[in-house]
Amino acid sequence: MSTYAKPIPIPSATTEFFWDGCKQHQLLLQQCTSCSAFRFPPSPICPECLSTGSKIEEVSGQGTVHTFGVYHRLYHPGFKEEIPYVVGIIELDEGPRLLSNVIDSDPKDVYCGMPVHVVFEEITEDSTLYKFAPAPSS
Question: How much is the pTM?
Answer without folding.
Answer: 0.93
